[in-house]
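Dear Dr. H.,

I hope your travels went smoothly. While you were away I took the liberty of generating a structure for the chain from your last submission, since the lab meeting agenda had it listed for discussion. I wanted you to have the full record in hand beforehand rather than looking at slides cold. The sequence, exactly as received, is reproduced here:
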Amino acid sequence: MTLLRIRGLSKIYGEVPVLDRVDLDVAAGEIVMVVGPSGAGKSTLLRCINRIELPSEGSVVLDGTDMGGEWKAGRLTADGPDATARKRRAIGMVFQRFNLFAHLSALDNVAIGPHRVLHRPLAEARRLAAAQLDLVRLSEHAAKRPAQLSGGQQQRVAIARALAMHPKLMLFDEPTSALDPELVGEVLEVIRSVARQGMTMLVVTHEMQFAGEIGSRVLFMDAGRVIEDAPPASFFTSPRHDRAREFLRRTLTRS
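The corresponding predicted structure, in token form, is as follows:
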């Protein structure tokens, strides 16, 4: 079943197309790894999917719901802020930076969404948060504030916070890029555990080995376009396009 359907998605800043007519279908349970050089449009793609950035044109449909508005009499009426926020609840997003509330414990950073957005009673929201912290192996740190946690632990709290909203789709925007190298592995292992649960995911990453290990597909982007879309085994051993081959040559040589 197609969970996410993207057609003609573009984002133009001034006269510069950062996304250029992207088409993409993602089935429920797929793990799509998005790779490519800096400035290729990878992060912009994720931000347009969940409407942090408003696309210049094109459509994003998640589980039958148009993320941009409502169709009436054959015409699309754009959503207002409240409708956009409501639809966005179906998408969890983990950023490069953790964006945790400094004055809240790890437990309450995870519980705040279910409590304030989903209107769950605080005790119930905290029980849900505790379960998510257990999933990311942070139960013993539930009472700590972000300043008392390592960068890897903070990113794991951010993942738990996104999962606590029970999203249909998870977006990861280079979730390890702000971490010291020795902390990368613990975050990648949590993402692996989320993948094993069958969550549908788009993951922007520079971790090529990780992309090949857990991805159902690899999208290679360059200059705002999807240049190649292939299973990991095909992409990493026999990419079809010269630009993808050059990217892999440089990336794998550095690693």
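Two observations you may find useful: The mean pLDDT is 92. The CA atoms of residues 105 and 145 lie 4 Å apart.

With kind regards,
E. W.
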